[in-house]
Write a structure and sequence with these properties.
11 strands, D-Maltodextrin-Binding Protein, domain 2, about 300 residues, seven-stranded mixed β-sheet, alpha/beta
Amino acid sequence: MNYTLHQLEIFLTVAQLKSVTKASEALYLSQPAVSIQLKKFQEQFQVPLFEIVSRRIYITEFGEEIAMAAKKILNEVNAINYKALSYQGELAGKLKIAIVSTAKYVMPYFISQFITNNRGIDLIMDVTNKAEVIKALENNEVDFAMVSTIPKKLKVNRIELMQNRLYMIGNKDYKLKGKQLSYSEFQKLPLIYREQGSATRLAMEQFIESRKISTYKKMELTSNEALKQAVISGLGFSIMPLIGNKNAIGNGDLQIIPVAGLPIVTNWNLIWLSSKNLSNIAKEMIIHITENKTSVINKYFSWLDNY
């Protein structure tokens, strides 16, 4: 047998994702390239690694065993690479960060230069809902989390990154009566909410309850992108973070609807468990972000001041 590490990585990714298409996207390869290497890898075994039924890929029991072995081999290879870089005086290893969905418009800008400057760091950034982010942090599955609401039940340290401003957002066809949306008109609008537990959902509910506005819920969605598309299509209105909606507002698909008491202003925070024994990579990232956050905000997010 003469298979390569590259083939092991491709087969492991296909086995994990159960899809050649998704594997090609994850590995930044074309589908034909993945298919060719997968075929060459299979040819070295007399027992099938996978089956294709109704255009879906199923990993055989033997294939699962090979995938487990491939994972161990690739982990050992990565460990060798990390050690080699460490002996050269470079930071090397994995950095795991969990972020809420809206934070994907923010977090990459604060860490991009750090990752670029340290080629031995493998970044794993999980974009999910708030509940899963806090769960991953609490279970010590990640080094850092990025949230706009600090979890009360956990003892954490934090770096306050930048403001998160939430406005009333509607689609381009809505015609405002007057300079501001009155609370009586507000009550007539079909509202779209984020899922329970979302910081955006909480901020929206607190705003509505504090002003005793009687509303009805039209829809509940689990991601900011889905919420944005629903508002663009005219399904309803929502109080949403400005970040992530810049382009849609700029090209006229969405509009900010002025409402007394808005925007709601919260803050993005990078947090980590106070009890966590931080790796050298984590310590250096904290230093990097602390020293560079102001310049990152000025370079990439000064446009927020125009609203």
